[in-house]
Each structure stands twice: as structure tokens, then as C-alpha cells.
Amino acid sequence: MVQFPYETYALRVEQPIGTFYVAVLPAELLLQVAASDRMRARMNKDGDGYHLEGTQRIIQDKRLTEIANYIGRVDAAFPNSIIIAANYDRDTGFDQGELEDIVSEESGPEADVASRVWTVELQENGCYRLRIPSAEKLAAVIDGQHRLFSFAKADIESMRGMNLLCSVFLDLPKALQAQIFATINSTQKRVDRSLTFELFGYNVSDEAEEYWTPDKLAVFFTRKLGTDNGSPLQGRVLVAVY
User: Fold this and answer.
1) 3-state secondary structure string, 45-107?
2) Are 154 and 72 contacting, i.e. CB atoms less than 8 angstroms apart?
3) What are the pLDDT digits (tens) for 194-222?
4) Is 163 helix (H, G, I), strand (E, B) or coil?
5) Most Cβ neighbours (<10 Å): which of 7, 81, 171, 177?
């Protein structure tokens, strides 16, 4: 059983898009703290194993079962990293640090608010230390959701004995999460851009119009043309199916 707070060493990586950290994390820990727009794992009430939540069509995807069977093999290997964005609150769209700042301002300086923010600190030996305070689902899965959530269907012992390579972005905005997802999948296999927008929930109502990016404006016009009663394209604009 994973104990929190959980700490482990991490490597800092600088790339044009920003900074991220590479760490080795137990599959069981990731099932507890990670979620995607399509799936998430929950621990069973008896504390023995996990089950998946999401649409039945996604949960019953045969790829999950195939990977789960592979996990139990003696030669199982997952060398590619799971890419996650930590400190992202899916309910509000804010990063966890911003939410805690808001709570602190509303409650006053005397309030003792336990932080749930993932942090990385440079140690005296020159290494970085990643700290995960709790099992709160504050890690959005950008890439690797099938690999990760297959562990919820795998044999418990195989799941508990597996560590996974992870690339951890801290406080990464939703738009950049979508950009990374689209870039990775467009270079490996073709992914429709409209599918990317649907997967990452571009909500045009969560931001003032004057701050919309060109992509968000395009999403607004497309949805408007497809649903407006006066539109000649009503019912003719197909939303990405996944």
C-alpha cells in the first residue's frame, strides 16, 4: 500500500515548452492520483484492487484488457514515460496552488490550510526531490492513459510490483496539455484536431471573449454553427467521437 506524503528523486528536464521532471512512480500510486477526461481508477471499498470509472464503451475497450494481460507476463516492460500534468483541478480548471491561494485569502492569514500541491525541491546533493502530499486526483494524464489504467484490470500483485517512468509537468495550463497531446499523437499516429479539442474540454464559457485564443474562437464558431436554430449547418457539424 502506498503511503502519503510520497517522496522520490526526480531529474529536471529543460525543453522549449518548459520544465518538467522525470521520476519513477509506482503504478498503484498513479492509479490513486491520476485521472483523464475519459477514465479514472477508484480503489474498491474493501481496499483490495481498483475499478475504472467512465463511459462503458471506453472502460470495455479491448486495448485495456490486452495490456492488462501483458502486465502479468514475466517479460512485461513499459519503457516509455506516462506524461502527467500535476496540480490540475479538473472540477475548476485552476491549478491547485491558485485554489489554495484563493482559500487562504478568503479564510484569512490565521487559517491553517494543508497544502495538496505537488512540489519539487533541490536537495543539497544536487538532486531534486518530488513530493506528493496526498492521494487527491490532481494529476491529469496527458499521454499514456491506456497503459496506466490497464493496471486497474491487471492482477493485483503484478500491479503492485510495477514501477512506471513518468514525465511530470507542474502547473501546466490546459491549452498546453492539449498541445502536447496533439503533437505526440500527430507524430505517432494521426489524431483529428477536433478530437483533441473534445478530449481536453475546450469550454468557451470559462474565459472572457477578449482573451480567447484563435483555436478557442474556432471551437465557438463551429459549435454555434452546428447547434444554432438559425444556422444552415444545424445538425450537420459532426463533433469528434471518441
Assistant:
1) CCCCCEEEEECHHHHCCHHHHHHHHHHCCCCCCCCCCEEEEECECCCCCCEHHHHHHHHHHHH
2) yes
3) 666 655 556 666 667 777 777 778 877 88
4) strand
5) 177
Indicate if the pLDDT at residue 56 is higher than 90. Answer: no
- Decide: 159 and 71 in contact? Cβ < 8 Å: yes
| CB count in 10 Å sphere of residue 116 | 19
Q: Does residue 21 contact residue 128 with C-beta atoms inside 8 Å?
A: yes
19 forms beta bridges with: 14
Whether a cis peptide bond, with omega within 30° of 0, leads into 109 is no
Contact between 143 and 83 (Cβ < 8 Å): yes
Determine the Cα–Cα distance for residues 27 and 151; give it in Å rounded to an integer: 7
Q: Give the number of other Cβ atoms within 10 Å of residue 154's Cβ.
A: 24
Q: Are 8 and 24 in contact (CB under 8 A)?
A: yes
How many angstroms separate the CA atoms of 75 and 172, rounded? Answer: 34
**Contact (Cβ atoms closer than 8 angstroms) between residue 196 and residue 202:** no
Q: Which of 17, 22, 7 is nearest to 167 (CA)?
A: 22
Longest dimension (CA), the chain: 66
Cβ pair 242, 191 in contact under 8 A: no
